[in-house]
Write a structure and sequence with these properties.
By secondary structure, the protein is an all-alpha fold. It contains 3 helices and no strands.
Length: about 140
């Protein structure tokens, strides 16, 4: 009787034959794949010059667009610098104008003139009420 750890020569031969068959199947599929691959590679190689030409045209258009953008920015640069200098002054003028409007609206009778001319709303702004006052009114 053979021990379970030892294999018989016929088992080893059967295992070797099955391994050989598996290797042949893998090699056959790899060979089939290798045969099918060159036509795909040939198609890719055939389209490559057209792709490279399109890429070159696109890069040239991009370069022209960048050149145009640089020229426009160089022409706009003095205007942008002037705006940078003017904006703080304009902000100061707006602040002064807001202060003047606030002071004029504090003059007596200006609220009435504003309502008559339609420059302000008809209803005066009501002061915010205290939530405690609302609770006491409800309880009464």
């Amino acid at each position: 009787m053979t021990s379970p750890q030892r294999s018989s020569p016929s088992d080893i031969l059967a295992a070797a034959q099955s391994a050989l068959e598996a290797a042949q199947a893998v090699a056959g599929s790899a060979f089939d794949t290798a045969i099918r691959l060159p036509p795909a590679s040939a198609q890719l190689a055939a389209t490559l010059p057209g792709l490279i030409e399109n890429l070159a045209v696109s890069i040239e258009r991009l370069n022209r667009t960048l050149d145009r953008t640089e020229r426009m920015l160089s022409l706009a640069d003095p205007m942008l610098n002037t705006l940078d200098r003017l904006i703080p002054r304009l902000e100061q003028l707006m602040s002064v104008g807001d202060d003047i409007v606030r002071q004029v609206t504090k003059l007596p009778g200006m609220g009435t003139i504003g309502r008559v001319t339609g420059l302000t709303s008809d209803q005066p702004a009501s002061p915010p009420s205290d939530p405690k006052d609302k609770d006491t009114k409800r309880r009464r």
